[in-house]
Hints:
Layout: E1 2-7, H1 14-26, E2 31-36, H2 41-48, E3 52-55, H3 67-70, H4 73-97, E4 101-104, H5 107-120, E5 124-128, H6 134-152, E6 155-158, H7 161-165, E7 174-176, E8 199-203, H8 212-220, E9 228-232, H9 240-252, E10 257-261, H10 266-270, E11 275-277, H11 288-295, E12 299-304, H12 308-311, E13 319-322, H13 326-338, H14 340-354, H15 359-382
Parallel strand pairs: 1-2, 1-4, 2-3, 4-5, 5-6, 6-7, 8-9, 8-11, 9-10, 11-12, 12-13
Helix pairs in contact: 1-15, 4-5, 5-6, 8-9, 8-13, 11-14
Amino acid sequence: MKAVFVAHTAAPSGAELAMLRLVSALQPHLDTAVVYTADGPMVDRTRERGIETRLLPNAFDSRSMTIAGAADPRRLLAGAAGLLRVGWALGATARELGATVLVAGSSKTLLMGAVAARRAGIPLVWQVHDRITAQYFGRALAPVLRLLGRVAAQGCIANSRGTLRTLFTWRQPAIVAYPGLEPAPEAVRPPQREPEDAVVAVVGRLAPWKGQDVFLRALAAAKYVPRQVLLVGGTFFDEEPYRAELERLAAELALPVTFTGHVDDPEALLRDVDVLVHCSVLPEPFGQVVVEGMRAGCAVVATRPGGPTEIVEPEISGLLVDAGDEAQLTAALDRLLGDPALRDRLAAAARVRARRFDITESARAVAGFLAEVAGRRKWLRHG
């Protein structure tokens, strides 16, 4: 069988990088290909891994299918019509590639995938990287997406148990496959530093829901000021004004902040970081940077609810605080920065815990699931 994965963007954001790791790990199990409906860095990255890659040019404006776009019904309908047209062309591409199953990697590709899979006569699987809730998609669009996922897709792959609970999967095959890390040798790293010499990092897109502003205010109220603070991440989807806001806030609070921009391999950078802070103010669908930080030997503090609660064992392999609670985050930073021995203990347990999130295990589960969905579709058609 051949699984063709579809992405609506080729920007190197979390979902696209997770897809690339999964498709790479699937190669020993089944034939794969990736179709991007927009150009960008991920196209060349995918080809460099020897994965069959197609770019499907089109004039679709993805901004029409955002929460802001949904506020204008005419713009939303025009966007949906554009997705349907792309989906028709995608169906022809899926046929050319000899696809057995089509995997839609986002809510936008779910709609175009529904058209494409029907034209190609193959099942559609929705790989869900986002929590399908009003917080992410708005009150009007979230229930529509849940219903579309149930009607259009013959199976769902969720990136966490929390994400799966936001879907409508009644009598529909579904699994949880964590976006794990690729195998790597355990790297040597320096010991945890004293408070005044510590390095603290936040890794993720510079976006308001990621909570970097909450982190900066929480750190400013802490007893200890680390030697260096790294805000690691780029800006996508018109988020540049938020970076400017963070730069102003860091200057006002007199914090030693370095903005690194996008980093291809944050784990290499994290090997020299003492404390990794995950501070999303909305429930994180998964939080793969948390796993990266744990494997790199950082002491981690992350927010709940959301995916990090499935990763971090509280007080064993990291600390958890309530999302958006500056006081709790300040208290956690005080504990970690002021106690290198605590950081050592948490980091050692975190490295062990991170081994559970291996992309090879997720790939085995996904390969079996895709075969099951394809076989079920054949049985329903011919049985």
